[in-house]
Fold:
Amino acid sequence: MNAERAARWFVLGLALGVPLAILAVSWLRPAQTLELHARMAESGGWTPDALIVKAGEPLRLRLTSDDVLHGLAVGQTDWPAVDVFPGKVTETTLTFDRPGTYAFYCTRWCGVNHWRMRGTIEVTGETTVEPAITPPLYVTLGIDIDRPHPAATTPARRPSAGRGAALGVTLPMEYLTQEYYRSHAPMEVWRSLRAEPFMTSLSDDDVWDLVAFAWESNTSPEAIGEGGKSYAANCAACHGEQGGGDGVMAEALVKQLSTGMGHEAQAPASFIDAASMLGASPALLQGKIIRGGMGTGMPAWGAIFTEPQTWALVDYLWTFQFD
Amino acid sequence: MMRYDLTRLPLVKPLLKSRWPQFILTALLLAGFVFAILAGLAGTPVGSRNFGIVFVWIAWWAALMLIAIPLFGRGWCSICPIPAPGEWLQRGAVLGPQESSNDFSRSSATEVATTNVRRGLGLGKRWPNRLRNIWLQNAVFVLVALFSAVVLTQPRVTALVLAALLFIALGASLVFERRAFCRYLCPVGGFIGLYAQLAPVEVRVKDLALCAAHTAKTCYTGSAAGYGCPWQVFPGSLVKNTYCGMCVECLRTCPHDNIALNLRAFGADLEAPAGRKLDEAFKAFIMLGAAVTYSAVLLGPWAALKSAAYAIGTPAWGAYTAAFLLLIFVLLPGAFWIAVRIGTVFSRSGASTRRMFVSLAYALVPLGLAAWIAFSLAFVFANLSYVWPALSDPLGWGWNLLGTAHLAWRPYLTGVTPALQAVVLLGGLTWASATARRIAAEGLPPHAATLQSLPVILYCLLVTLALLGLLVA
Structure:
């Protein structure tokens, strides 16, 4: 073989060898490793935004951000969120036990459309037991969550569960049941208590303290703590850390929505507004959280929060009204 | 000036005369180059995990700026893969002639003509006379530089740029004779040529008289032993490294063994007054301006500047572009022209300001190389650790071929890098100042030469201080 021919074979070998080596290694590489890119919603959100995996099989994800810091969490689970850094790869593995459709979402306030950064994971497999579907309480109660719900009366001072307990009044059990607590607005509780004959010696504000006591009796420090974490991670960007509806994204969100709708959009709800909050039942707040606000920037969290997480969040919202 | 012919060392000449080492290196690099393109197109878009970005802009750039150019000048050009496919097609061979020049020395002049017939593809046209300069190279470099923030970080863009270079080189080889792309278009080759003047190696003829008497000029026309100079350079007229690709084709074709690969002092070419031109002078300004701009954009703390450089097509990017062009084509040359003019007036030399402007601009060559080395030291050592994961997982597909895929990023030599940068920049300033003084002294008495060069030295000092501020402070 002359030198020129040998050199040509060498070039040909390289030309074929490089792609063949890539194909060979691709074939041998571990299965189901998926690269998931995070971008701000304006730039496309998650890519891909629809994943499919079989139940029981590990879904290996290589997460990276193409712009700013994002986070990844899967709704309806208690798996901890994973931060997704720009220009770096973070690996995580998810294994789903049950078939179904799960939502994954961004957990970092990456921009005004942060809440739009969502995707789905379809977990396939044979379902052995159909999960029972229970409609949320606001549906069962037939509450129209879009109707205004102002409280006719508001307390002169901030109600305190501690003061309510110190009054030494024994409330009838019906006021302390979870069913009653979740289905009645504080205003309704106050009105019912006010009408009770044994309350005549108490002032209006004392009765409000008893309403706060009824709220505290239906929650726990753990639930308040969990709700507080959910609020800080998911709600405070718009509703504000102090619940005033003035979060860091609020102004930009309203501006953006107003531009899109052609009229002034509704600002994020203020949880420190007593008239609005004391007229809303926990069931109504649960509905707002699950379904989202029609025509406002409030996203639907039904696919994200589990039921206990939603109730914990509702319990936490009352801390903006009650001590 | 002392020179030592490296071909006197055993094995060096056979190694250079044989086509195999150069061919194998080029072919392997071409495979790596094509792989970088494939990685950019099909691999992960995360730059720090993509072979295309990591090996081109970190590993290759480090090797080029910190080793290849300072020590070997155009050594990289002799094994560069970009022109290889076009050259192979042009020649109709990938390896080329195997007959040695010693065999050929016994051939007749008639054989010269018959063995030099082109067998490959291509039109073999001459490069237009009006474009026989490096203005086009300057323009292509500036064009790439304007998009560099994106090119350097986005694998797909890098892949497109690399592929474009490959296809332009291929096209140039099929239309024009020899390595027109390398000589007149390659944006990298332009600055390598400029800074190759500083390298301690050169290809030169041993005996000019022997060269002049050799009527066949096989080093330029080619012979059965090899091709005529691909860079369109007659070795007998070489006074500087700028346009010598160090392919050593002339070493193979010279029947009289009259070509030397010399070891010499650093920067020897700057002492030769011949061949100084305005296009090369502007290349020095462009490179200096680009080093300043890159230091500010890529390493500086100004988020708005960084964002503007990335936001291609926006008004902010337009402003960035205007500022960059203003800096390299107006501010830097303008201030330099004023410095030269002040020197001319104070020295009362009566020298042409234009001529002195062009000549003294060569003092910026060592300063520019120092600036680029200092800039490269910062980002290369900061990012070199990306090489290990990219080796194991070059496409970012989750492979772990060598077990290094999960090695975390960590910057190297952070403690000493600023000191190294300062030493390099101050060394560059000293070298530039000495060069300016020596160039001024070429036609002036010592006192006038000092006065002529002082404003230029002050100019170099200000640029160095700016770079020290950007890179070290």
Q: What stands out?
A: The two ends of chain A are 93 Å apart (CA to CA).
